[in-house]
Every structure is written in structure tokens, then in C-alpha cells.
Design brief:
263 residues, alpha/beta, 7-stranded mixed β-sheet, 6 helices, 7 strands, 16% strand
């Protein structure tokens, strides 16, 4: 078995059980061979105003010292934590930071963490949205695109909404939070697949060799791919041809789950 040098820290949305993102984590691990962790936060809130580094990357690095580069990926409020942690590590020169993927999230300047601006960086990024998202403030989102890296791939999932970046019961959020998401026109599985492919595309741009677990000859891999955003949308196949077994691991309880290369 080959080991992977790539990991993903997947920050969940606000007030959402971390297990709701296992559908994304499993795909990242089984299709692409990435060590994937979902950090747990008090009250399921990945970000606290004024806390400008959750230290979850350090915890992930301690569990997987063989990983050279990490993608920090986050959905909604989890995207806030992902971007704040990334900004902290970018400014401190942490070479383990490899890229960022934001799902239904944007770079906000009102987080008590100073001005966050990646526009002069070359950090690989992905900005993934659902075309029918009824929660994300699209006016703010459009305005804040200026703070993303020039090396950002934009993916707008046609027929996708806000909630289907995970798998959780959305019904009470309407009553408690006043959120009225759009009604998706595609299956959640399609939105998960496209999101995972976008995260994998970030990984292909980090300068680290992709995992080389080859699919057995009789097995087919139905793995979607996305263009790299620099050549008119040509398919990136480098991340699509790998599948590995996944299994649980005993580790720091700050992580809900770990999906990793089999050994």
C-alpha cells in the first residue's frame, strides 16, 4: 500500500453534527486517497469571533506526520474557520498549508482577525457554491471574491443548494435560524461528488504527488473530475484513477472521524 502525503481538514457548518460531513470525508478518502479529518468544536461552532487560529491543523499534523500538505476545506460557518486558520498559517509561513476550499462561504473582513486578503498569494483555492443557495449572502459573496487567490477555481453547482454540501436534517433551521434554503434540483450525491472533485483539484495544484493506489483491473471508478481553470476547463484526470480501502483509526477525540489509506 502506498501512503498519502495529502490531507484534508474538513470544517463543518454551524450547529451541524460533524457526522453530517462524513459523506464528503468518505469520498475524499476512498476515491482520492486523502487523509481526511473532521474536527469537533464546542456547540458545533467552528469559529469564535476573535479566535484567529483554532489549532486544528496542528492536531491533524500530529496524527498524520507523513502528510506534507493539507487542504483546509469548510462549509458555510465552517468555511469561516477554514479561511481564518489558513490566513494565520499563511502569515506564519506554515509550509503544511497547501490550499483552501470554501463551500458556500466567503472571506469576510469582520471577524476580529485583521484584514484577510489572499489576492497577492499563489495559494491554490476553490470556491464552490450551489446555484439555488438561499442562505449565503450572494451580494457579500460577490464583493468578497476580490480577497481570494488568483489561483482560485470557481464551481457553481447547477441545481445545488446550501444544505446539500453535507447530509443533515435541515427542517429545524428554518424555524430556529430563519434560514430558507433553495430546493435542490439534483441529488445530494451529485453535489457531494462535484464538491469532492473540486477539493481534489486544489490538491493537484499543491505541488505534492497525488496518492498512487491503482484501481484493480476489474474495478471501475466513477469519479467526477473538474478542469483546472487555466486551460478552458479540460478535465483533470490525475486525481480520478485512485481508490483505496478506508477504515477507522484510534486518534485524538477532537476529531469525529478519520478516513485514511489502508495499511
Amino acid at each position: 500500500m502506498y501512503d498519502s502525503k495529502i490531507g484534508v481538514v474538513l470544517y463543518g457548518g454551524g450547529l451541524i453534527d460533524p457526522r453530517g460531513y462524513s459523506v464528503i470525508a468518505e469520498r475524499l478518502a476512498s476515491r482520492y486517497g486523502f487523509h481526511t479529518v473532521i474536527p469537533i468544536f464546542a456547540n458545533d461552532l467552528a469559529f469564535s469571533f476573535g479566535v484567529c487560529d483554532s489549532m486544528r491543523l496542528d492536531m491533524a499534523k500530529a496524527e498524520f506526520p507523513q502528510v506534507e500538505k493539507w487542504v483546509l476545506a469548510g462549509h458555510s460557518f465552517g468555511g469561516v474557520s477554514a479561511i481564518v486558520d489558513s490566513w494565520s498559517r499563511y502569515n506564519s509561513g506554515d509550509v503544511a498549508l497547501g490550499g483552501v476550499a470554501l463551500m458556500a462561504a466567503d472571506i469576510q473582513q469582520t471577524l476580529d482577525c485583521g484584514a484577510i486578503d489572499f489576492s497577492n498569494s499563489t495559494l491554490p483555492m476553490a470556491s464552490i457554491t450551489g446555484a439555488l443557495d438561499g442562505v449565503l449572502n450572494m451580494t457579500r459573496f460577490s464583493s468578497n471574491q476580490q480577497f481570494l487567490s488568483p489561483d482560485t477555481q470557481f464551481v457553481d453547482v447547477f441545481g445545488g443548494n446550501h444544505g446539500d454540501f453535507g447530509s443533515y436534517d435541515y427542517s429545524e433551521r428554518r424555524t430556529i435560524l430563519g434560514q430558507n434554503d433553495g430546493t435542490s434540483l439534483i441529488s445530494p450525491e451529485i453535489q457531494w461528488d462535484l464538491s469532492v472533485a473540486a477539493i481534489a483539484n486544489v490538491a493537484t495544484r499543491m505541488g505534492v504527488e497525488m496518492p498512487k493506489k491503482i484501481i484493480p483491473a476489474m474495478e471501475e471508478c466513477d469519479c467526477p473530475t473538474l478542469g483546472n481553470g487555466t486551460d478552458g476547463g479540460s478535465a483533470d484526470t490525475s486525481a480520478a484513477a485512485f481508490r483505496v480501502n478506508v477504515g477507522p483509526s484510534t486518534m485524538n477525540p477532537i476529531f469525529m472521524t478519520v478516513l485514511m489509506l489502508a495499511w
